[in-house]
Amino acid sequence: MAGLWLYLRRRKDGVDGDAVAVPYGANGKAIFIVLAVASAVEAGLFWLIDFGIVVDVVLLVLGGYSVLLVFGVYAGTVVRPHVVSSREVRVRYSSFYDVRIPRENVAALRHSKESHDPLKAQKFRDGTWLSRDNFYETNLVAELRDPVTVTRPLGKTETVRVVKFQADDPKAAVEAYERLAVS
Fold first, then answer.
1. Which residue of 31, 65, 68, 96 sits 20 to 30 Å from the alpha carbon of 37, by its own alpha carbon?
2. For 81-97, how does the pLDDT look when each residue is reduced to its tens digit (9 = 90+)?
3. CB 43 within 8 A of CB 66
């Protein structure tokens, strides 16, 4: 819900100073719209079935909450973009994860479009972490000098040396990274 609040106020989280926002959610917008419409229709259909007024009201409230939740996750992808700055590179997905990589630890940030098998991508393989927010496709690779610890959405941690993630405009992200190089 915090993402929805920031979205309505047209604010971005964590983009200050020399930081450059790197959006990543353009390809997933249609899915969020479909999920929100399906949740709204489902809530309306439950209202047509007579379970009794108390159950009908509870189901309607839960349906409305699910629509808000879907819009909240989408809003989180808009207001919490990846961030490239002179201090760090942040890889995020809504409020589910936020990986902060100190700038000194990034050996290279490069554009490389890859598609990953979902079954193999579930595991952290060879010290590589895949941001799975965009249909298992990545187009940016951050190679690290020293391993970093990544906290997954359900709390498990992994140590990785390579971070792969998706951006709407990967070339602009690489240009911002090079422009803000640590001197």
1. 96
2. 999 999 999 999 888 88
3. yes
Residue 37 maps to a domain: no
- What b/e string do you get for 107-131 counting C-beta neighbours within 10 Å, with b at 16 or more? eebeeeeeebeeeebeeeeeebbbb
One-letter identity of residue 122: Q
Residue 109: which domain range? 102-179
Amino acid residing at 10: R
d(CA 154, CA 176): 31
Residue 142 lies in a domain: yes
Asked whether the beta carbons of 170 and 23 are under 8 A apart, the reply is no
In a domain, 137, yes or no: yes
DSSP label at 77? H
How many structural domains compose the chain? 1
pLDDT bucket at 30, cuts 50 / 70 / 90: confident
**Amino acid letter at 27?**
N
Chain-centroid distance of CA 120 in Å reads 20
Residue 81, in any domain of the structure: no
Q: Are 166 and 143 in contact (CB under 8 A)?
A: no
pLDDT at site 95: 82
Q: How confident is the model at residue 134 (pLDDT cuts 50, 70, 90)?
A: low
* Chain-centroid distance, C-alpha 119: 20
Q: Taking residues 21-35, what's their average pLDDT?
A: 87
Specify the amino acid at residue 32: F
